[in-house]
Write a structure and sequence with these properties.
The complex is a heterotrimer of chains A (about 375), B (about 350) and C (about 130).
Chain A lengths: L3 E8 L10 H16 L6 E5 L3 H5 L4 H8 L7 E4 L5 H14 L5 E9 L5 H8 L5 H5 L5 H16 L3 H4 L1 H10 L13 H6 L2 E3 L2 E2 L8 E9 L1 H6 L5 E9 L14 H14 L8 E3 L5 H10 L8 H6 L16 H4 L7 H13 L13 E8 L4 E9 L1
Parallel strand pairs in A: 2-3, 2-4, 9-10
Antiparallel strand pairs in A: 1-7, 1-8, 4-7, 5-6, 8-11, 10-11
Chain B lengths: L7 E8 L3 E4 H8 L10 E4 L6 H16 L6 E7 L10 H9 L6 E5 L5 H14 L5 E9 L14 E9 L7 E13 L2 E2 L8 E2 L5 H20 L8 E4 L5 H10 L3 H4 L5 H4 L6 H10 L7 E5 L4 E11 L3 H5 L5 H6 L2 E2 L2 H7 L6
Parallel strand pairs in B: 2-14, 4-5, 4-6, 11-12
Antiparallel strand pairs in B: 1-7, 1-8, 2-3, 6-7, 8-13, 9-10, 12-13
Helix pairs in contact in B: 2-3, 5-6
Chain C lengths: L5 H6 L1 H6 L1 E5 L5 E2 L14 E5 L3 E10 L12 E8 L4 E6 L12 E11 L6 E9 L2
Antiparallel strand pairs in C: 1-2, 1-3, 4-5, 4-7, 5-6, 7-8
Classes of the chains: A alpha/beta (about 375), B alpha/beta (about 350), C mainly beta (about 130).
Chain lengths: ~375, ~350, ~130
């Protein structure tokens, strides 16, 4: 089995890009990644997107992107796993390289949410849940998170002011990030005084409508050797769970994250303490908290203590969401996992600017579809 | 008169939604005098309620009391002037929701405020004729009055349901007789595609409500050999508090026999459910052996009157489900603005 | 964009109107929609059940940012409920205001309009829960 290397990354700024189309965004990210890798052709393309079939009524993103890039002729396929779609594209591309069937693969994540009204986007985000049941009754992604939040605070007797520290941390990390949607600091009071989206969940504990595309060039060992661009090694594993967290044994535990993370660590022959940068999927504050616990980086009910002790800061023991995470870098749905992996790559190739975490040799990104109904764990290793 | 051989109420249920608006509040909006209001307050459906959901609420209570499997119900008839669909029966939705489908006949009846007692006539007849074992008759409405119109003070929401069977041993009351009195009297109407009804103000009184109710009751008593002494309770259609009391007076019925079933002052005129909810209220308190006179009125116009005798089973079955008072007492007042939202008077 | 598609709505009315569901005869898992194989134990043997209409409220939240199609009733409450047989179910709460709700309180199922299609005008009905009467 060939090893997989990231040889180039391309990020578009996350924003409401009123003047740019879905096609434009994914093409821009792709070209940046190809240029970063220093190559112009790949053997295949995988495009991850969650919302484009709904908001843009555009499917068939593989052939579409190949055409935009002037690469028509090569295999190009769209991949979907809700808000983990981008990671699903990485997974597919990585597996193709591991199998020896490709030397270089372009992987892209894209979503453009600003083409939809807020109500449309809220409805579209529910495509990752079981629509016939949970969507039908008018539940939203945030209301599901809110129920988990409420149960969590109740079971572990933890106040909201502890959990709401997570978005504060994310904003702190986004300050120097050129591609971040919200590169500014916020105070805990700002979070706690922001309006409810779905009690107890407040607006500053959620993410906003965002447009973005991110791309990676994945190559095999042989190709990697020919390129003088900085590279990292990529190991990706995945797991799934029921779509509705309330049908699981315990809605406050995400077994899919636990499983994917353990599989990735074991394949990389690493322990949890070897991970020095962690990218969490903080679609809401509470998801980050439960993810930390489920993946074994914090004890049950105690993830907030890591926040309070500053361990998740850039100079802490486990720097977390070093470019602002979903909250502050932005969360363009299916594109987000590719941003996470690209950001780990920038860290491990010492191109993270003012946010550089120097000691790190290994980073882990967790990317979730729905409320951890799909979980990807991607480890990037310095080479 | 053709006698009813065997038709007994085996289960009954009344439902009133949670929200109330006071007549005073409506008077405040339209600058009306507050000294002569037709009712104290009226019941207003929630945003997610309609005639069908209220019919189901009442039907489920009736089924609880009846203690029969819903699949044994052979007919579901819903009387209403506010069906959610102009075309598409409410009865099918109700039948499906209670689990009476598919071996069931379902239909909607419309006869202004007497559609409920009309549904009850047909169910009674189907059971009496041996065509079905059990039948469900419902009167339900989410009545609408034009903003500012006199009807706006009373037009209310509610539902009443009755399961009719044949066996007196499982009955709460026996339907001994019924009759109808119908003429073409246009006192109130609503044309297709119209939102609110038209009415003829004082013409709705003497030639319409009183004439039809008085004659319907007189015919019933005369034809079936009852006297006023046989009657322990009298329940009339209740468009306001005054009309039923005047009707009782015209018929020479003691007002004390009319007041126990007179609930319009607290819930308003629930149209097709109005007289039937009065009957529910009386069944909630009547004793075995007592007789109830029920007389509805429907604009257009007509009145159905019934003689109903309370059976031994009432005592046990009454306690099997919440009484009407539970719903009448469960109330939250809303102001006119919330009322306007609930009743879709704000067009979005 | 997000319309009520009649066949999809109609197909599952048994569950939505009456809480008719399936129970796995091997592990007891409840399935709201007709299963072919149990998600938990992979048995293929099921029985029809009607879930109890009463239960207790485990958690609730208020939807203040509704999805398309649900704007008219917003804000509305979503509850996580444990029915008397132990089945856990999500549903809207009705006939109540958030400040009246308490964890552990008794609730009961009722049928309500869940939404109306703004263009086709079809009405979708569904179970909701209300404080027990």
């Amino acid at each position: 089995m060939s090893k997989v290397y990231v040889a180039g990354v391309g990020l578009t700024k996350i924003d409401e890009h009123w003047w740019m189309s879905l096609e434009y965004l994914m093409t821009e990210a792709s070209l940046k990644a190809l240029d970063d890798a220093g190559i112009s052709r790949v053997d295949s393309i995988y495009v991850g997107s969650m919302l484009s079939p709904i908001l843009q009524e555009q499917g068939h993103l593989g052939a579409l992107l190949a055409e935009e890039l002037g690469l028509s002729g090569i295999p190009a396929i769209g991949v979907e796993a809700a808000s983990a779609s981008g990671a699903a594209a990485v997974y597919t591309g990585a597996r193709e390289i591991e199998s020896g069937r490709a030397n270089a693969v372009l992987v892209v994540g894209v979503d453009k949410m600003s083409d939809g009204m807020a109500e449309e986007v809220t409805a579209a985000m529910m495509s990752g849940e079981r629509q016939e049941y949970v969507g039908f009754i008018g539940a939203t992604f945030y209301s599901i998170n809110a129920l988990i939040y409420s149960l969590y605070m109740d079971r572990y007797n933890v106040g909201q002011e502890k959990i709401a520290l997570f978005p504060v941390l994310c904003h702190e990390h986004a300050v120097n990030v050129p591609h971040a949607q919200y590169p500014f600091k916020i105070k805990l009071e700002t979070v706690l005084n922001s309006p409810y989206i779905s009690e107890p969940l407040r607006r500053f504990e959620t993410t906003a409508i965002a447009d973005g595309a991110a791309a990676l060039v994945l190559v095999n060992e042989e190709t990697a050797k020919k390129l003088d661009t900085p590279k990292t090694e990529l190991i990706i594993e995945a797991s799934t769970d029921y779509l509705t967290p309330f049908q699981r044994e315990d809605p406050l535990w995400f077994p899919a994250i636990q499983l994917a993370t353990s599989k990735a660590l074991s394949r990389a022959k690493l322990e949890r303490q070897d991970i020095k940068i962690l990218e969490l999927y903080d679609a809401t504050s509470i998801m980050a908290i439960v993810s930390l616990e489920s993946s074994g980086f914090a004890e049950r009910g105690k993830a907030w203590q890591l926040l309070e002790r500053g361990e998740l800061g850039l100079s802490g023991a486990l720097p977390c969401n070093t470019f602002g995470g979903l909250k502050a870098r932005g969360h363009p749905a299916g594109a987000t996992p590719v941003y996470q992996i690209a950001e780990l790559h920038l860290q491990l190739t010492h191109r993270a600017g003012k946010n550089q975490v120097d000691s790190a040799k290994n980073g882990l990104a967790q990317s979730l579809g729905g409320v951890a109904s799909t979980a990807f764990a991607t480890i990037l290793r310095e080479v | 008169m053709v006698r009813i051989n065997s038709a007994v109420i085996v289960g009954y249920g009344g439902y009133v939604p949670r929200y109330r608006i006071k007549s005073e509040e409506i008077a405040r909006i339209w600058g009306r005098d507050k000294s002569e209001l037709p009712v104290e307050e009226k019941a207003v459906a929630g945003l997610d309620e309609d005639t069908v959901t209220m019919a189901v609420e009442a039907a489920k209570i009736a089924i609880k009391r009846a203690g029969i499997p819903p699949s044994k119900i052979g007919a579901v008839h819903v009387g209403t002037e506010s069906k959610p669909y102009a075309v598409k029966p409410s009865g099918t939705i109700v039948a499906e929701a209670i689990g009476a489908v598919p071996s069931v006949t379902a239909a909607d009846f419309e006869f202004a405020c007497k559609a409920g007692t009309e549904a009850l006539q047909f169910i009674t007849s189907l059971v009496d004729a041996g065509r079905i074992e059990y039948g469900l008759a419902i009167g339900a409405d989410t009545a609408q009055g034009r903003p500012g119109d006199a009807l706006e003070f009373t037009a209310a929401c509610g539902a009443a349901a009755f399961i009719i069977g044949r066996d007196k041993n499982e009955g709460v009351a026996e339907i001994e007789a019924w009759t109808s009195y119908v003429t073409d009297t246009p006192d109130f109407w609503r044309r297709e595609y119209e939102r609110y009804p038209h009415h003829t103000a004082r013409f709705t009184g003497d030639p319409a409500y009183f004439h039809h109710i008085v004659n319907s009751v007189k015919n019933l008593l005369e034809n079936d050999g009852y006297t006023l002494n046989d009657i322990d309770y009298a329940v009339f259609h209740q468009p306001n508090v005054r009309f039923p009391l005047v009707a009782a007076k015209l018929l020479g019925i003691d007002l004390e026999k009319t007041k126990p079933g007179l609930i319009t002052g607290y819930i308003g005129n629930t149209y097709a459910a109005s007289s039937l909810l009065g009957l529910v209220k009386v069944l909630d308190q009547a004793k075995p052996g007592q007789r109830i006179l029920l007389a509805s009125f429907g604009s257009g116009a007509g009145s159905d009157s019934y003689i109903i005798r309370v059976l031994e089973g009432i005592e046990v079955k009454r306690s099997l489900a919440p009484t009407l008072d539970k719903f009448i007492e469960r109330k939250t007042y809303i102001d006119y603005a919330i009322y306007a939202r609930h009743r879709k008077k704000i067009l979005m | 964009m997000f319309r009520i598609k009649v066949p999809r709505y109609w197909r599952h009315k048994d569950f939505r109107y009456r809480l008719n569901a399936w129970k796995c005869n091997h592990c007891g898992e409840t399935h709201f929609f007709q299963p072919l194989i149990c998600r938990k134990c992979r048995s293929r043997d099921f029985s029809r059940v009607t879930l109890p209409e009463s239960g207790k409220l485990l958690a609730y939240t208020v939807v203040r940012s509704p999805p398309e199609g649900f704007e008219a009733q917003s804000p509305y409450i979503i509850g996580f409920i444990e029915l008397d047989d132990g089945t856990r179910i999500l549903g809207q709460l009705t006939d109540c205001y958030p400040e009246e709700l308490k964890q552990g309180m008794k609730v009961e199922a009722t049928l309500r309009k869940i939404r109306e299609d703004q263009e086709d005008k079809i009405i979708a009905y569904c179970y909701k829960f209300r404080p027990a009467i």
